[in-house]
Input
Amino acid sequence: MGTDDKTLLDDVSEKPGPPAEPLPYRPDRTVREYLARNRRESAVDLATPGQLGRGALLGAAALLLLAYDYKVFWAGLLFLLSGFYLAAILYKLVTVLRSLCGAHEIRVSPEELSALREEDLPVYTVLVPLYRESAVAGRIVAAMERLDYPAEKLDVKFLLEEDDASTARACTGLALPEGAEIVLVPHSFPKTKPKACMHGLARARGEYLVIYDAEDRPEPDQLRKAVAAFRRAEERVACLQVKLNYYNPDENRLTKWFTIEYTAWFDLFLPGLHSLGAPIPLGGTSNHFRTAILREVGGWDPFNVTEDCDLGIRLHRRGFRTAILDSTTWEEANSRLGNWIRQRSRWVKGYLQTHLVHTRSIVQTLKELGPFGAASFLLTVGGLSLTLLLNPVFWTILLLYGGLWAGAALGFGVHPWQMIYTDRVSDIDLSFTLWSRLSWVFFGVSGVLFLANGVFILINVLACFRRGLGRLAPLALLSPLYWALISLAAWKGLVQLLFRPSYWEKTRHGLMRGPAPGDPGAENPAHDR
Amino acid sequence: MTGKTRTTLRRIGAAGAWAFLLLGSGGSVCGGESPPPGQPRAVLDISGAPDIVFTDLVLQMHIRAFLDREAPRRPPKEKADLLPATLQPSFLREGFFERPVALPPVEIALPPYSAEACDIRFPLAPAYLSARHRLRLELRAFGSMTEAFLSIRPAGEPGKDLEARGLHLYTRQGERVMLGTVRWGESAYRRWAVPRAAARWASSRPDMPVVALSCDAAGGDGLAEMKELFLKRDRDLRIIRPSGQSGRCAPILGLLAAAGRLEWKGDAEVLLSPGTADIAFGTPPALYGMALHALVSRMETVLPSARGRMFLALPALPPGLSSRGEFYRLAAARVAKERHMRTIDLEAAVDPLVAWGAQGAELLMVPAAREALARRLAAALNPGPRDRFASALLALAGLGFFLLIFRMRRARRRFRALVAHTCGEGETPPAPSSAGTSDPKP
Output
């Protein structure tokens, strides 16, 4: 800990009670330097003038089409959207199926681990950003102590915020592991985790670097596995993404669904992307980096609220690759709906930010990611976000469609055939009928929605069995309900993107009932492979 | 074959006969003697061709009136052969067709309707009438009406049979009419054998003038093509296009368009009969009512002498549509009340055999009819409350959009100030809680 930080920390931690006034923001050199180098790749600007121009052109064209023929407009719009929607879902299915066809992640055998000599192990930096985590600070400290890595080669940095007295107090009251350091992040704008990480990166000493969240429980041998994997992998593998999962899946339905989704994402989807050589949107924690490369690409974007996803894409654009490491970090699943929606809305907002950032220059993106990589990026980042945003729209259309059928069955107004009959173009002319168009649109959208939900359920069921969570499979069948919740959060994220793009929706941790794994009297994670 | 199926098929057969009658008469204008009290003095049949049921009713009223007036009632020479008496339309039972030249010159005036609609009905009707004995048997082989439509082939020479049956239709100019199928596109002539056979038959009789009926430019073009293909007798083929427009089936709006072309002399009492096509095609009852209002207004403009002397027919409905159709009847009754018109409830007068089954009515759907529905939705009828509501919604949406942009710009300015401050370029912004950067309380 630097002298300045220690003094500040003393100041912060000794202040009893809540602060009377919010601290004014300070200028932040780290952010300034990042922007000076990487502004073009930062989410500090929501959209560039070029993007705005393209958007305006598209909007004008859409308006012209609307004025020309509203039926064509709506049919075309919905056709495009449902096409993209379907493509995103099917791509996800393909990646998942591919990941099922073999082990695509890097696996480190116990022999390899035992062959690692302690003196050959490099210094490993562990960044632990903590903000208002006084309740779980002790747990992450304990988790760090459990890491099977030479203490003298561990460079653990707890990143505390200047205005977070409670966590500072909690940390100063704990016996930190040997070599651990508290880094005090100045109270500056934006108040985000990547900004804190950038401060940590500035002081990192390790050859490799990893991030853990406050509630994380990494498997003790994870760092050793990462070292072995990095040494075995190509030089261009800059990052290893470890699988994430939850140690409290059985707390309630939400945690069960969340666990299923995480399992599908980290155990099936990301390995599938890895096997395809596609850009991988990193998960929030347990990303192991080669520190030098991380510095080379500029680190995390302080303004992007899913800096992990952005960094994964950026690494790919620079020619580096991300691999999946077969190790698990256990986290706490959000068990409260409001808290979960906050977290999820931030994720969707961040994905949208990332999409906007990396589509600023489509030519450049195509050049750097390649056609397949660019398509994969569009489908995984923008596409999946779009599916979430479209779900409520499609559900509404489906309900309307069902309502019309029901109405027809009850003898009101509309005939069922009006909703299913499609005109024969060759027999009439190009001016299709309204009903025919509605038939197309309604039928198409309903079909897409059914197919997508089927795929979603299938993936989740597969994930359950893949991870040995067969008991959760029945709930996976109800995944569309969970999807609806995600969509709710997605719309919240979209609105927030417009007004508070870099606002970090803080996720509360430590809500789990009972002791977390690692706590005194606690059991091991509830499920394992 | 079950009794129910047999009954259905018989009804289909009967419907074919009705369709033939309809297409032989289409819209017609008929003046007459003083009607009984409470009945309209003249019947203005302005229902479209798809309105099989009602048009038949009007035609039936017309024919009955004519027969009552002009010809002494005679017992039929022969019973309408194979159809059981209970299934025969009343005028068939009365031996109408046995009167060789009983029909007065009828002005064939088809309102604009669909070529597609034509080719559904034309082939069945002449085939049925020309070869009733055989067709009825053939129909039994098919499971559904659609199949029957698609599979009917003429047995023998239909025209000859028609002639043999003494069924001739004439134009006002005294020309005999042969019914021809009109359909858009040459594929129709491959698909439907009846018109081809009819055309060949006609071509073998150079003495007989042929008048092809058509409703619109598309149909007319189709006929011209047929003529070129089969008849090679340009001078004998005359195409009547009463509507003169290239519209297709437009059950109510078509009437509006046709109304302006009517000529009416003398004092008239007019029966406006909206027909059942709109019901069969599922026009929303509210729109149906609106269109009726517009129709009444239009008629009052075109025929000022009929103002205050118009009747509105409450549509008669085929059995399968009766529950839903009540909405339409209510809509018509409401319009009549609002416009101070008298009503004639056709349902009370309808011959049960007139009614199509629900199946038959459903089969009347044609793309063009739905296009008419779309047109109706988009028609420049007087903006009603719904349009005003939609306009208000649109205005609100626009306002909301501008507010959104305004708020976004404000938030963006604030954001930029914060970024500038972080980079040491700006002044210290106000407290963060108001800047959209505050964090939730744990």
The longest strand of chain A covers residues 321-331.
